[in-house]
Amino acid sequence: MPSPHSSDIPFYDLVIIGAGLSGCAFADQLRHTSLSILVVDKSRGTGGRASSKRLEHGSCELGAVQIKLEHKTLEELKARLLANGTIAPWQQGFVGVPRMSTVCRDLLGDTAIQTGARIHHLERNEQGDWLIRDDNYHPIARCRYLVLATPATQAAMLLATTQGQAELLQAAYDASALTVPQWAMWFTMPKKIQQPVLQEFADHRLLQRLVCDSSKPGRSALDGEQIWVAQTRADWSKAHLNSPRDTIKQAIINGVQDHFGTEIFAAGEPHRWLLGQQSGVVSDQPYLVNDTKNLWLIGDWLCQGDGEGALVSATFAAQEFLASL
To answer: Is the pLDDT of residue 3 over 70?
Structure first.
C-alpha cells in the first residue's frame, strides 16, 4: 500500500534488511499478521551463511554446517520444520532438506523479497517513516518499522548513515571487532575413505573443520564419490585474507590431502567469507531496539554467534515487536 506521503516509492509496514536465518525467522513470526512486509538482501537469494551452493552433481554448504535447535523458544519452530520435512537430524543438530537454503525459503514463505539490492543509506522523515536507499542512492522502499538482520559490520555501516543511533551504532561496532573471516572450499573424495563425517580441529595449522556434505539427509553425489567441505581457521584466514585464490586453493588441497593421506578427486574455487564467523557477542540481550525510532537489530552477533542464536534473536525480537503494536 503506498504511503500518503509518497506516490512513487513503495511503502510497507515493515522492511527487513537481510534474508539470512534471523531475517527470515522474524518474517516467519509475523506470518499471521496483516502487516505488509518486504525482505531485502544484497545476494541473489536467501540464506546468508545458511545458503547452499549447487554443484553439477549435488550441492554443498560452504557456510553453516548444521543448526542446533535446543533452545526452548524454538520448540514450536523445530516441530513445524520437522513436520514439513524442511529439516532432518544430522550429527548434533539439524540440516535443511534437500539443502540448507530450504530452511530460509520455508521461513520466508510468501513474504515479498527483493534480492540483489545493496542497502547503503537510511533516512527518517518528519512523519516517522524510514526511507531506504541502495548503493546508487536509489530509493528502494519506505516503511514504518525497520529491522536490520545483517552481520554486525553491515549494521554498523547502515547505522552510521542516520542520526540518533549512537547506542546501537556502538554495539554493532563493538561486535564487528569480533567478526572473523573464513575460507571454505568443496572437494570430492573416494567413497571408500573411512573418516568421521564431521571433524573439528583445535590445533591444525590451517583447517578448522571438515564436513562430508554428501552424508547429510537428502544429499547426493556421483557413484563412488563423497562431497566434502573444508573450512579454515580464523587466524589463518586473516593472514591470507587477500591471497590469490589459486594460492588458497592449493593450500587447502595440501592440508586436506595430508590429513586424509590420499589425493582428492576434484576441488571447487575457494569462497571467502569476509564476515564468516562471530567469535563472541557483546550484548546480554538477544536483540536491540530503539523504540522511538521503530528500529530493531537482530542476528547471531547478539545471541550465541551461531545459527541457533540467529533464530533465537529473531524469535525474541518478533515476540516483543508484536507485543508493542
So the answer is: no
